[in-house]
Amino acid sequence: MDAIELLKQQHREVEELFEKFEKASEGKGEQVLMDLFARIADNLAAHATIEEKLFYPSVYVGPTADKLQEAVEEHLAAKRVSADLLDMDPADAQFKAKMKVLKELVEHHVEEEEKQLFKDVKKLLSKDELASIGEQLEVMFNELIQTEPRMQVPRETGEAAPLA
Q: Has residue 65 got a pLDDT over 90?
């Protein structure tokens, strides 16, 4: 699968998880909310990692450089909220509010990637290059998702990931 299609697919999966969380917030038990948060946080952590370590460095040239700097700052903001949530209980009054903030951060980030960055990347890379990067992204994501990547997030909240 090409890199952009894979990343878009992961965006849709996280959007679905946020929808499930919102529905579950209306009466489901705390364990259900915590399980959904863990899935969201793991997916976001693994997704951010593959973007920061593989995808962004491979397209950090010309017109995309500024957009990528902004993207890693957006990742940092989401990581900080995720780290806060890791220390909270779903019964905490602020838990649902922080989840709403996390969702809004992610929605904004996804919109910018899909409407701007990905279009620029398609102009920079060939289909073969996108396919090759996509394979690498998929392998790394599948490895990371097995390791509860959300647990690494608190260590990644100091500053945005370097790209160059």
A: no
* Residue 162 neighbours by CB distance under 10 Å: 8
User: Mean of the pLDDT values across residues 58-62?
Assistant: 88
For residue 126, give the DSSP letter: -
Spatial CA neighbour of 120 closest among 164, 73, 71, 79: 71
Q: Report pTM.
A: 0.94
CB count within 10 Å of CB 79 equals 26
How would DSSP label each residue in 36-89? Answer: HHHHHHHHHHHHHHHIIIIIHHHT-SGGGHHHHHHHHHHHHHHHHHHHHHHTS-
Q: Is the CB of residue 41 less than 8 Å from the CB of residue 86? A: yes
Find the mean pLDDT for residues 132-151: 97
pLDDT for position 30: 86
Would you say residue 163 has pLDDT above 90? no
Q: Which two tokens stand for residue 110?
A: 């996804």
25/19 Cα distance (integer angstroms): 10
